[in-house]
Amino acid sequence: MDFQQPGITTLHDLAGGQAASAARVEALRKRDKKLGLFLPALYRDLHSDSMRVIVDELRSVDWLDMIVPAVTFRDTPPSPERVKEVGELFAEFASPVKPIWINSEPIQGLLDELKTKGIDVGPNGKGRTVWLGVGYMLASDMDVIALHDCDIVGYRGDLVNRLFFPAVKFDYEFVKGYYARAHGGLYGRVTRLLVWPLLGSFARLRSGVPFVNFARSFRYPLSGEFAMGADLAERISLENGWGLEVGSLAQVFKLLSLSEVAQVDLGINYEHHHQPLGQDSDSGLQRMAVEIVSSLLRTMAGTGVTFEKHALFAAFDEVGRDLIRAYRSDAAFNGLPYDRMAERDQLELYTRSLEKGFAKFEEEPSRSVGVKLPSWRTIEEEFPGTSAELVQRIETGPEHLRQSP
User: Fold this and answer.
1) Residue 4 located in a structural domain
2) What CATH number has the domain bearing residue 261?
């Protein structure tokens, strides 16, 4: 049984089962805090088997103050037929559902107005969607906001109470989920073959750096499942790009003490929609890798730590090969297939991503990888009433929802 506490509080799945889940739900029912769940989704996600399971599991959850699905469509604005389809999908929920139509005219109009005020809101993307959702839920007086992706295979409803419970019961300001990634083999390639080797390289070349120790304490640093209190949600600046998760960890490290941070075992063997590798460094997992590298290098530079290029590349290759040997052993121990040569090829691909990301960092050391969206506290200080306007725009909905029959 694993009891390890690696620097941040780690809540393990020691007992499991329905009894533990029921006890958490009972405690959450007795709370004095308002809880909101945010679900960022692409329109394509809505037709998946995963989404149908998520909807079925969440439909009976009656202890949330709001569930906010934020749907991004390819067409702008969303068509009446698709709006109706989403409405039917989220009908008859036990908790209130408040959808956000990311492509709708009111939302896009507000974003255009913010641009004219000098606020760079960047292009459509998960980071901006999360930013809008956080602003809406803060303006709706939520005390704790949780988020999870909508392409999870093997989803279970108790994932939500696992995320909320530490923040509600023990007042952790940031709670990040972690899980296994082994479905007929080892997955989580970007974490296993890029993030862990890179953080390990940092530690090997410069030991004792607080941010590195902090980041390495997380069992799945790229997890998209987390909960945060309203104080952090007001102050955090989110990245609108593939650096969203690692950039968020950098912000959490900056804004909170270790005693305010926890990670929780979500109790699932996680699987989700896989990103393609991409044809080059501007697409797919390769683009993701370059942006993660650049984000981490800039975070390190912000703490006063930089690296000599060739020493970092050599350390990355060495740490990566050591990890591949460990992954091979772990897979064999569990009777899972493992293609060592394919893993080495992937490590080599990420070595090229490291080179590209390092070059981008050298060109502009102080520039964020993607757009760094301002915190909602900053927005309200500079432009009071923006949050209230966001609520009005979201609740107005697409143009055709306002038309008389």
Assistant:
1) no
2) 3.90.550.10
